[in-house]
Amino acid sequence: xxxxxxxxxxxxxxxxxxxxxxxxxxxxxxxxxxxxxxxxxxxxxxxxxxxxxxxxxxxxxxxxxxxxxxxxxxxxxxxxxxxxxxxxxxxxxxxxxxxxxxxxxx
Length: 106
Known about the structure:
Layout: H1 2-8, E1 23-24, E2 27-30, H2 33-49, E3 53-54, E4 59-62, E5 68-69, E6 72-73, H3 76-97
Parallel strand pairs: 1-3, 2-4
Antiparallel strand pairs: 5-6
């Protein structure tokens, strides 16, 4: 996480600094809900500080309660959450560009 933030600092002199006006999906993992929720909250705060817009849905994955398989997450509820987040990201990006967007296009 620290390295990602360090590289984000390289965007400070761009025409659009940092995440200016961009939608950002936040996903946190941890071995217990307290750490997951705290981390997710801090990620959202960081996105705001870097001028971005975190999606309404943030995904928390408790690795103690989640099973993993060779294809990734074995828990189907995360697939649904990722689909919702994808729609939020695409919808926010379309609003930012001032274009029409329909969730049926996903």
